[in-house]
Every structure is written in structure tokens, then in C-alpha cells.
């Protein structure tokens, strides 16, 4: 870890009175400010961004109903740089100002840490003594303006919103439980995201949800401490602040406040791309072969992966029939030992699914058993949103040198990829075609701009044979025919736009082989090991354009709901250098409903300052691969 650290500390003491003078702490660039004050025994904060009041007069407490006294405070300034094991950036700057506030809740000591970053703020409590007669709860209000609009994840459904705060205050019929990461759009078109980070380091707490309190007129979260321990540390409660909604996706505050890497030697952790069998069952190739749960099907996946630099092959459910602790009875449909040996010979790593509904789960024998099969990782299904179990599963999988991918509504442990980088991805979204449905282009944009804020997503983008899916030629495809509205180019773009440590592409090898010139974009782009990432354009329900750099190569993916042209300025390229650019584009004939697989690939040269007109059809996409000439 490379560190450049500057720390400045000094101690401030407040007057011992009911209403104590407020503290003000600003971000390093001065654009984000927190005002913290004690009003009649209640600690309150206000958040200002660009001198605009974003969150007003909002209570924050660990013991509601008890009066708090501020005994003193210490201020620190920190500026350091660290390198993640993998991520959207190869190096991350951790630059913040911090206020360490010493509190007393009617005889109960507590410490509140407040950090201000250029991109947001974070709050955490630490209690070293908890009386048996008192149960703490991390209570926090968010005093948002009436004109602010909210967007929230909705599990496997389309994220909902916009819902105005004014509407919540005036209508009794709206009873939403808002989930993190909550996105707030202000009347000034500035954007907040409300979430938490480092839950993995805070035993005794569950995932936060948000409710609207009509009495106070504020959005609130109230996370109760459920442990019998006599001390606690809370997760960081985070508020991100950006002028552009797309910048919420590359905001590093949630990672910066998370605990550092806990794996001594993470060299075995390799992000990458994986083929996947589940959505291909029933697909018939042109040579007459039909895919299923059998050795020949898996050999075909492994062969294509080996020939096209795909690191992994993921085998989903039904490879076993019975579960005992540390032992599974293999399905008679295939000989898994032969598949494992074949993959070893071809240099392809295997990932293996596990469904906890089919037997004992969470026992310490499971992960060593997967390791004994020479698996690289586990896809864990139906674990429920159980925080203690999820925390332990991540730790135990790390002990067995296994990557772990959580399926089916997992815990959004934001920041965990810094602490346990083997937690490679999770399906905190509606994965494409999941529940045998197909999501719309608008739903993709919403999940890309909302769900993805909490961390890497396993969304299963990358369908190339769209016509086959829409014709119902897949056993696990959507129940409704012709319900997948997308284009082949949009599918390629989505694999870049959605950040993940494991990009799971769901189509048959033959579907990719027939479009190898388009598949080149997926094949050439690295996964998870980016030097730089930025969102060039983003608008809710409309479009998104994401650029990622690896070395001197740039990969850019864009999608558009209604269709249109985005101006992509190449001002991020180096001066006095020529670049080769490969365009992967929708054509004049492409139609996301009637002709989704039409595309074109062309090569040209560009330089810094050029502007690319990225033209897309409705539901379509646009991709670019730029590298030095």
C-alpha cells in the first residue's frame, strides 16, 4: 500500500451548557460542509453543498430520548493514497477532514466521528460501554427539501421513483420502505445518495432501510443494535454529494471509509469474465446439439473460454442431488470429475453454484469441500438477507481461497470489496431475464444509476442471440415471448457499464462465435482491474455512457432508452498521440424489437479533443475500444 499521509490534530472544548456552540467542518475543497450543534440536548446536523442547504436540522443519535452533552472534540485532516486489490481505479485518494466528537448520554459515554470528503460525508458512532438497561440504535434524520425527489431500489423489480418529499408529507396512501442506496435529486439538479458502508465491520447491526416520519416531516433510518455485547461500533452512515448523477457511481467515499483489506495474501483473487450455463439450457446449436446439464455441454463452454481468453466457466444449479456437511451427491446427468479435469487441461477456472435450500448451509465444511474440488469460487444462492451469515460466508470463503458471488437478493455490503476483495460480485438487482422475466431498457438505466452505487453487480448482460431468447428457445428464458428489448451492441455495452469483479455473460458459445467481431469488445476489455473510470453522460430513464481505462487503452460503452446521439469528447486522451479506434455500432437497420442483432464494426483513428457522435437506436447501444496507434 502506497501512502502519502498528512495529519493535523487539535482539541476543542465546548461550553458545558444546554445549547452549545456549533461545530462547522468542511471538505478539503470547501464545497461540502457539515454544521453540528446541540439543540436542547439533541444533536443535530445540517449538510451544505456548494453553499446550498441540502439536509437541514436533522437529528443524529444512539439513544433517542436521552439528552446528550458534547464534552469536547478533536479535528483531524488526512490525505493518503491506497491501492485496491481490484476495482474501478488502480489508486484511490483518501482525503478528508474529520471531527471526533466526545459525547455523554446521561452518563453513557460515546464518540461520534464525522468525516467530510469532497464527494460527501460519513458518520460513525463508537460506544465502549453499554448499560444493560439501555439498548442503542443508530438513529438518523434526513431533512430534505420538499421539492427533492427520491429513487429507491426495489429488489428484483424496477427501481421506483421519482417521489417528492412533499408528496410523502401530504399523502397517506404512499407507504414505501425505501432501501439503500437511495438517490435524491434536488430542485437544483444536484444529487445525493443515502447509504451505509463497512457493515461487515459492525456486528450487531442489520442493513438500513429508510422510512418517512410524518411527525417530523423527515426521512429517517433507525438501525437497532441487536447484540448483547457491551460495546459497539456502527457502520458508517454515508451521504454522497455530486453535481452529476453519474458521478455517484465512481464516488470513492464508501470505499474510503471501509476497513482495509483483511486478506494477508490476496494474489489468488483474480476478477474476470465467465461463461454461464443456466440461460443456455435447451438452446439448439446449428449442428443439432442441444445444451443441457451434461459433460458435452460443459466441454463446449470450456473450449470456447479457452480459445477466447475467458477466465472462468460458471456451472449453475442441478449438478448435485443431495447435500451433507462437506459432501454432495453428484447428479447422474454428468461426470463432474471429468469436467474438472478437462477445465484444468484447458486452463479454465471453474465456479460452482450452491443452493442453501437443498441442505445444510453456512457450515465450515462447505467451503473447504469446494476447495477440494479445485473450484475457484462459489455462487451462493438463496442465502436471504442475513447479515451475520453473509459476513461469515465471506470470511470462510476467503479462508479457502474462494471467490464468492451472492445470488438472489443479497446483503448490500457496501465497501466490502476493499475489506474482503474475494466478495467479487452480488445480484443486488434484477439480473437480466431473472424470475424468467426480461427487463426493459429503462429498467437497466435505473439499476445502473441506483443499485450500482452500493458496489459491484452481477446482472448477466451480454445476450447476443436475442432472437433465440425472444422465440422461447431457452428453457430458462423469459416466459413472455418477444419481451427482451435490446440490441447486440447494447448488450456488449452493458457489460462495461455495469461494474463488477465478475462479468457473467449468459449466452451460448455459438452465439458469440457467430459475432466474434462484436465479441472482441468483451474479449479485449479487462474486468475489475481498471486504472480509471468515469461516467461521461447520464440521465435517469434516458441514457448512460461510461468510459474505463486500462493502461493506455480506453473502453467506452453507451446505451439509450429512446434512441439518440451522444457527443463523446475524447479530451481524456494524451496530447500529440494518435489512437486507433474500433467502433461497434447499431446500424440504420437495427431495431431493438424487430431487428436487434444488426450491427457494424469499423476502424478509424482519433486524437485528443475529437468528438465522437455515438448514435443509437431506441433500446440500442454504442461501444468503442481506443488504443495507441
Automatic annotation (TrEMBL):
Identify the residues that the record assigns to the Glycosyl-hydrolase 97 N-terminal domain, covering every copy: 25-260
Looking up Pfam families in the UniProt record yields: GH97_C (PF14509), GH97_N (PF14508), Glyco_hydro_97 (PF10566)
Show where the Glycosyl-hydrolase 97 catalytic domain sits: 280-427
The chain positions of domain Glycosyl-hydrolase 97 C-terminal oligomerisation read 529-626
GO terms of molecular function: carbohydrate binding
Record keyword Calcium present: yes
Q: Which cofactor does it need?
A: Ca(2+)
Keywords, alphabetical: Calcium
Q: Where are the transmembrane segments?
A: none
Q: Which domain of life is it from?
A: Bacteria
Q: What is this protein called?
A: Alpha-glucosidase
| Species of origin | Pseudalgibacter alginicilyticus
Amino acid at each position: 500500500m502506497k501512502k502519502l499521509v498528512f495529519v493535523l490534530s487539535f482539541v476543542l472544548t465546548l461550553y458545558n451548557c444546554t445549547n452549545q456552540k456549533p461545530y462547522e467542518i468542511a471538505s478539503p475543497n470547501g464545497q461540502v460542509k457539515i454544521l453540528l450543534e446541540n439543540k436542547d440536548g439533541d444533536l443535530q446536523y445540517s449538510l451544505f453543498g456548494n453553499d446550498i442547504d441540502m439536509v437541514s436540522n436533522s437529528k443524529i443519535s444512539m439513544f433517542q430520548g436521552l439528552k446528550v452533552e458534547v464534552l469536547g472534540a478533536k479535528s483531524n485532516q488526512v490525505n493518503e493514497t491506497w491501492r485496491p486489490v481490484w476495482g474501478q481505479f488502480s489508486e484511490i485518494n483518501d482525503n478528508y477532514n474529520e471531527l471526533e466528537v466526545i459525547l455523554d448520554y446521561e452518563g453513557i459515554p460515546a464518540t461520534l466521528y464525522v468525516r467530510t470528503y469532497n464527494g460527501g460525508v460519513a458518520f460513525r458512532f463508537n460506544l465502549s460501554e453499554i448499560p444493560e438497561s439501555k439498548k442503542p440504535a443508530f438513529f438518523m434524520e434526513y431533512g430534505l427539501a420538499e421539492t427533492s425527489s427520491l429513487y429507491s431500489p426495489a429488489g428484483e423489480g424496477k427501481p421506483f421513483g421519482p417521489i417528492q418529499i412533499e408528496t410523502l408529507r401530504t399523502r397517506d396512501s404512499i407507504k414505501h420502505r425505501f432501501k439503500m442506496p437511495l438517490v435524491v435529486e434536488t430542485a437544483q439538479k444536484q444529487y445525493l445518495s443515502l447509504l451505509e458502508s463497512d457493515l461487515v465491520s459492525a456486528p450487531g447491526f442489520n442493513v438500513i432501510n429508510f422510512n418517512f416520519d410524518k411527525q417530523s416531516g423527515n426521512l429517517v433510518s433507525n438501525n437497532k443494535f441487536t447484540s448483547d455485547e457491551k460495546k459497539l461500533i456502527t457502520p458508517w452512515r454515508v451521504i454522497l454529494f455530486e453535481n452529476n448523477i453519474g458521478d455517484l457511481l465512481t464516488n470513492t467515499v464508501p470505499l474510503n471509509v471501509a476497513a482495509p483489506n483483511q486478506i494477508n495474501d490476496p494474489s489468488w483473487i483474480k476478477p474476470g469474465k465467465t461463461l454461464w450455463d443456466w440461460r443456455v439450457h435447451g438452446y439448439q446449436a446449428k449442428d443439432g446439439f442441444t445444451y443441457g446439464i451434461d459433460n458435452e455441454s460443459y466441454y463446449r463452454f470450456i473450449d470456447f473460454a479457452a480459445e477466447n481468453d475467458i477466465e472462468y466457466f460458471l456451472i449453475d444449479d442441478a449438478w448435485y442431488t443431495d447435500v451433507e456437511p462437506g459432501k454432495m451427491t453428484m447428479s447422474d446427468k454428468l461426470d463432474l470429475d471429468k469436467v474438472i479435469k478437462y477445465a484444468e487441461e484447458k486452463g479454465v477456472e471453474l465456479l460452482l453454484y450452491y443452493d442453501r435450500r437443498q441442505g445444510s448451509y453456512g457450515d465450515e465444511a462447505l467451503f473447504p469441500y469446494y476447495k477440494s474440488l479445485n473450484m475457484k469460487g462459489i455462487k451462493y444462492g438463496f442465502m436471504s438477507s442475513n447479515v451475520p451469515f453473509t459476513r461469515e460466508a465471506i470470511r470462510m470463503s476467503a479462508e479457502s481461497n474462494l471467490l464468492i458471488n451472492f445470488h438472489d437478493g443479497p446483503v448490500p455490503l457496501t465497501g466490502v470489496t476493499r475489506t474482503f476483495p474475494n466478495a467479487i460480485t452480488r445480484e443486488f438487482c434484477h439480473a437480466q431475464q431473472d424470475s424468467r422475466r426480461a427487463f426493459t431498457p429503462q429498467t437497466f438505466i435505473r439499476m445502473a444509476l441506483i443499485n450500482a452505487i452500493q458496489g459491484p453487480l452481477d446482472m448477466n448482460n451480454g445476450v447476443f442471440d436475442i432472437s433465440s431468447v425472444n422465440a422461447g428457445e431457452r428453457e430458462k428464458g423469459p416466459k413472455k415471448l418477444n419481451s427482451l428489448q435490446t440490441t447486440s451492441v447494447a448488450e456488449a455495452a452493458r457489460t462495461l457499464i455495469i461494474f463488477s469483479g465478475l462479468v457473467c455473460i449468459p449466452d451460448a458459445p455459438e452465439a458469440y462465435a457467430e459475432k466474434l467481431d462484436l465479441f472482441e469488445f468483451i474479449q479485449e476489455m479487462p474486468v475489475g482491474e481498471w486504472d480509471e473510470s468515469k461516467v461521461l453522460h447520464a440521465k435517469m430513464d434516458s441514457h448512460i455512457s461510461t468510459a474505463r481505462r486500462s493502461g493506455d487503452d480506453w473502453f467506452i460503452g453507451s446505451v439509450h432508452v429512446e434512441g439518440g446521439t451522444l457527443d463523446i469528447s475524447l479530451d481524456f486522451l494524451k496530447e500529440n498521440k494518435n489512437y486507433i479506434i474500433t467502433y461497434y455500432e447499431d446500424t440504420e437497420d437495427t431495431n431493438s424489437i424487430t431487428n436487434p442483432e444488426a450491427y457494424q464494426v469499423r476502424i478509424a483513428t482519433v486524437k485528443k479533443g475529437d468528438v465522437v457522435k455515438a448514435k443509437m437506436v431506441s433500446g440500442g447501444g454504442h461501444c468503442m475500444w481506443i488504443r495507441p496507434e
